[in-house]
Amino acid sequence: MRNAPARTLAVLAVAFTVCVLSTGCGASALEAHARTALVLRSTNDAAVVAIEGGCERQAVAAASDTSVDHDTAAANAAAVLGRCERAVNIQHAFASALNAYIDQLLAVVNSGDEGPSALDRLKALAVNLIPLYADLADVADDLGLNLPHLPAALSGLTEPD
Amino acid sequence: MANRTVVQNILSGVAAGLDGSSSFVASPGARLGMGAAALLLRGVASAVSAHGTDAVRKAVLDLAGNPPKRASLDAARDAVAETLAARGDAPEAGEEDEA
Predict the structure, then answer these.
(1) pLDDT tens-digit map of A84-127
(2) Any CB–CB contact under 8 A between B60 and chain A?
(3) Is the interface score ipTM higher than 0.90?
(4) Which among A56, A14, A150 is positioned nearest to B72, based on CA atoms?
(5) Per residue, what are the HEC states of A21-65?
(6) Is the pTM of the predicted complex or chain greater than 0.90?
(7) Which of residues 74-103 of A touch B (CB under 8 A)?
(8) Minimal Cα distance from B67: which residue of A?
(9) A125, A99 Cβ separation under 8 angstroms
(10) What confidence tens digit (pLDDT) does each residue in B48-83 have?
C-alpha cells in the first residue's frame, strides 16, 4: 500500500539518512542528535497517521463485507482490530523510547554538558530505538503499511566514534 | 588630505583582511584595518556559532513541547460499530440480547 503517509515516510527516511550521515557540515554531535530526534518524531507522527488510517480502512472494509453474514463480518473486523492493537502497542513503545531520547536531549541542552558521558547516554537511547522501529515497521508491514526501515540510517549515528 | 589617506589605508586594510590578502600591510592604517577585519570576522564567526547553538536549543525545546504522537484505534472502533449497525442484516435492537 503506497499511500501519502508512506510516501512522506520514505522522503523522511531519505532526509534522515542525509542528515545523520552527513559529516561535512561541521555539525556537533548534539546537532546531529537534535536533527535525528526531529526526523524520528516526524516519522513517528506519520506512522501514527498510517496506522490509524490503514487500520480504520481495513476494519471498516471487513465490517462492510456483504459476502459474509453480519456476525462473520463483525468477527473479521475484530480480528483486524486485534492485529492493529499489536501495531498500536509497538508504536507506543517506540514513542516512549523516543520521548526518553528527547528528554535526555533536553537535559543536555539545559545543562550545557556535552561531555562524553552525556553523549554516550544519548547514543544508548538512540540505539534503543533501532529494534523498536524495526518491530514497528514489521507489524505495519503485516497490515500492508509501508514504513521505511530506519535502523540502517540510524546506525550512522550510533556507530562507535 | 592626510586624514583621507589614513582612512583609505584603513579601508584597504579591512578589505585585505576580509579577503585574506596579506600583501597590504605597509602602513599603520592598513594594519589597523587588518585588525578591524579580524575582529569583524571573529564577531561573524561567533554570531554564526551562537546562531547554531540557538537553533539546536530551539529545536530541542520544540521537541520537548510537542512529544511524539500515540496511535489510537478509537475512531476505527467507532467506524466499525457504525458500519455493522448500518448493514442490512444487522440484528434489530434487543435481538442480540434475546439470543
Answers:
(1) 999 999 999 999 999 999 999 999 988 888 888 888 888 889 88
(2) yes
(3) no
(4) A56
(5) HCCCCCCCHHHHHHHHHHHHHHHHHHHHHHHHHHHHHHHHHHHCC
(6) no
(7) 74, 77, 81, 84-85, 87-88, 91-92, 94-95, 98-99, 102-103
(8) A99
(9) no
(10) 455 567 788 888 998 899 999 999 999 999 999 999
